[in-house]
Design goal:
The chain contains 16 helices and eight strands. It has helices at about 1-5, 20-30, 35-60, 65-90, 105, 115-130, 145-160, 165-175, 215-220, 240-245, 285-300, 300-315, 330-340, 345-350, 355-360, 375-380; strands at about 10-15, 95, 110-115, 200-205, 235, 255, 265, 280-285. The model has no long low-confidence stretch (mean pLDDT about 95).
Length: about 400
């Protein structure tokens, strides 16, 4: 997702050569339908969907506590929705598979449905998930999907389809759900700060077990990447760094500013185990994102600016209002960029705000008609029902 959301956007780049060119093409909009990256994103997402479908197809026959069964259904619906959100935003018209696939032949009969159909189904699933998931967990259950996670994704999907009223309603449920901004931006990051008051949903990683750690701590960090054969990736663009205002504490999370290739510290500056085996979690949703999405939903006005200014105040900046230069959307998109950089939101934000082509053109890049990624060629070869996206 960092390739499809950050590298694809105006936030980051990577000057890889040789085998690494497979990734750098996404920064240049020269990717093709046989890309291993898009095929992996497609396959892994549908693998997650398949696992959720197995749970949902079989769980009613299981003799177990009714409350726990309802919770497990909610978790499966949330995870399936999260996969489908990324697939719909990235690939547009996709197959919507909602039951356990019993055979290869059945899989070859799947057909694409429109992006709107996918989003509407996600809305139904997330509404059910939010009703059945608890507000929080304790002990070893911390990290499971919560009511807040379901409503956060629900709010984002409503924003994506242009339904600001329902988006605001879902996001207000999160705002009243007990979350709060941590006092210092730097205190969001690092293993010691996981599952803080701002965290809504994280992907769990644990280093030292050989296959449970993450690789992005090394790959994104200029100090650590020297030990990794693939080198540093996801390098911040110069115009992203320039976007930070003087005194913005969020810039402190970008290191190596005097070097050729700076790097983000959001995912750790040390690795106590080995290359590509770090313990840092990936934060999928956090409260600052919710505040900014709610500002997007309510639009320009005192409430919208108050929501943005809560985030700015935490960063050590003064507030903005209608007299601040720029349109409300421009100011909001700026705030989302500097607050959420490297967190896999930027390309979806540019699409949702309708500025992907103009923003990339300002960076000297043409999207070549590729607002969606290529349906993997393997899928087209196997299933004659599928059609390719524009630009490929």
């Amino acid at each position: 997702y960092w390739v499809l959301q950050e590298l694809r956007s105006d936030n980051t780049f990577w000057d890889g050569t040789g085998l690494a060119e497979e990734i750098t093409v996404f920064d240049k909009f020269t990717d093709i339908s046989t890309s291993d990256i898009t095929e992996a994103a497609w396959n892994d997402s549908y693998l997650g969907i398949s696992r959720a479908n197995i749970v949902l197809s079989r769980i009613d026959a299981v003799d177990m506590d009714a409350g726990l069964k309802s919770q497990y259904k909610g978790e499966a619906l949330f995870l399936r929705s999260l996969y489908y959100y990324h697939l719909a935003v990235g690939f547009g018209n996709i197959p919507l598979v909602l039951t356990e696939t019993a055979s290869v032949d059945e899989g070859l009969e799947h057909v694409q449905v429109s992006q709107d159909v996918v989003f509407n189904h996600i809305i139904n699933d997330l509404t059910s998930a939010a009703a059945s998931l608890p507000s929080s967990y304790s002990g070893s259950d911390v990290g499971r999907a919560t009511k807040g996670a379901a409503n956060t994704l629900l709010g984002r999907v409503y924003l994506t389809i242009g339904d600001d009223t329902n988006a605001a309603a879902a996001l207000r449920q999160v705002v009243s759900g007990g979350y709060s901004l941590v006092s210092e931006f730097a205190n969001l990051w690092g293993v010691e700060n996981e599952h803080n008051s701002e965290s809504i949903f994280e992907v769990e990683f644990e280093g030292g077990f050989g296959d449970q750690g993450n690789n992005f701590t090394n790959q994104f960090n200029g100090d650590l990447a020297a030990a990794v054969t693939s080198g540093q990736r996801n390098i911040p663009e110069a115009d992203l760094i320039a976007e930070y205002e003087e005194g913005d504490s969020r810039l402190n999370l970008i290191d190596g500013l005097t070097e050729i290739s700076p790097w983000t510290l959001k995912y750790g500056s040390t690795n106590s185990f080995s290359d590509d085996d770090a313990p840092n979690n990936w934060v999928v949703f956090r409260y600052a994102d919710v505040l900014l999405m709610l500002a997007e939903a309510v639009g320009e006005g005192s409430e919208g600016y108050d929501l943005i200014n809560q985030v700015r105040t935490r960063a050590g900046l003064s507030g903005i209002d209608s007299s601040t230069p720029g349109s409300f959307n421009e100011k909001l998109l700026h705030e989302r960029r500097v607050e959420l950089a490297f967190e896999n939101h930027r390309w979806a934000d540019l699409l949702r705000f309708g500025v992907a082509e103009s923003v990339m053109a300002a960076q000297g890049k043409s999207v070549n008609g590729k607002l969606l990624f290529a349906i993997p060629q393997r899928e087209l070869d196997l299933n004659t029902n599928f059609t390719q996206n524009p630009g490929y």
